[in-house]
Design brief:
about 100 residues, mainly alpha, 4 helices, elongated
Amino acid sequence: MEKLKQRWGISSNFQIILIILAFSVNGSFAAWIAKPLTEFIGLDYETTNPWLFWPVRIFLIFIIYQITLPLVGFCFGQFKFFWNFFTVKMLKRMGFKNL
């Protein structure tokens, strides 16, 4: 546990619990938000070919997850952790090097 705290730059076990909770809540939240979004763009589970529906839905969940992770982290009091370790890394990989 100490190696994880040192690697993540956190100081307490309680922060680890909050971070894990934020990850799990954000995953469910992203999937929940993706359902009406797929319907909004005209893809319905009942009428759309699964070979089209599921890749689009998974892609939307991935994008929504990345966007909402700092917001959910903020709700759990861990915004700095999620901003520094995930959002900034993702943006740098996308080519925004000045962050």
